[in-house]
Amino acid sequence: MGSPFPGMDPYLEQYWRDVHHSLVTYSRDQLQPKLPPDLRARVEERVFVESEATEYRVFFPDVHVVEQHTRPQAAPAPKGDVALEEPLVVQLDDEPLSQGYIEIIDAASGNRVITVIEFLSPSNKVPGKGQDLYLQKQWEVRAAGLSLVEIDLTRTGRRVMTLPPHRIPPSHRTTYQVCVQRGWVPQKVEVYRAPLERRLPAIRVPLREIDADVPLDLQALVDLCYQNGRYEDLDYQVELDPPLDASDAAWAEELLHSKGLR
Fold it and tell me: How distant, in Å, are the alpha carbons of 15, 34, 124, 163, 174 from that of 244?
């Protein structure tokens, strides 16, 4: 059984760490046989620590087993004194997070990077270390004259792609978004529509100026994530966080009801 949604399944966003890693790996595998003989697609990784003190933090369902040492009981307070209340002690965990992305390199010229492909995560779209590192990487890619493909399949936070949201015409401001900037024409950005109710697009990935673009079928990637992650047990009765906007919510309600999932 596949996802009931024809395009991106918003219920996959709650498992974004798994989905993100899978999207990156499956993209590498899909692109590799289509590249010219001297080009390679390689997975790279950013690692950072997102402090719990920040306004927004993603919590992942990892399992931590810890040994709890029993504290000796405090002596009772002397009579006549105020009894001390025992507090709940909560440990702050600044857990290292990793974000994968793809670099297409020219193996014949010392592994020179020519294209970077990013699947944005919620931590890129809210204030914090993850966003700072992403914006720095974005600036470095543009300054080096590389091509940049930004794919946003999450709804949390604000869009931080190369093309600001207000520069995108209303006709292309969809639930999900893809922007492509070619390194040799940095003044232009290609925008792909990715509405909730439609199949995700197959996009053109630029290589060198002398090369033909290679296709990347985003829907095939999401379908693989759903199938290989065995997400057929997703609970479509629960409300999404963040919720869909009004028009998408009405459409999704009708869709799930028609498939007997509501």
Answer: 17, 36, 20, 23, 12
Task: Return d(Cα 107, Cα 147) in angstroms, integer.
Answer: 17
For residue 129, tell me if it sits in a domain: yes
* Segments forming the whole domain that contains residue 112: 10-56+93-236
Residue 77 lies inside a defined structural domain of this protein: no
pLDDT value of position 84: 78
Statement: residue 91 has pLDDT above 90 = no
Task: Examine residue 226 and state whether it is found in any structural domain, yes or no.
Answer: yes
Nearest to 7 by CA among 157, 206, 149, 177: 177
C-alpha 164/C-alpha 179 separation (Å) is: 10
pLDDT of 139 = 93
38: tokens are 């001297």
The mean pLDDT of the chain is 87
* pTM to 2 decimal places: 0.82
Residue 63 lies in a domain: no
Q: What is the pLDDT of residues 67-89, one digit of tens each?
A: 334 445 555 555 667 777 888 87
Q: In the chain, which ranges are E strands?
A: 39-49, 96-106, 112-119, 147-152, 176-181, 189-194, 202-205, 214-217
Q: State how far the Cα of 156 lies from the Cα of 89, in Å rounded to an integer.
A: 30
Provide CB contacts within 8 A for 32, sequence distance 6+: 40, 41
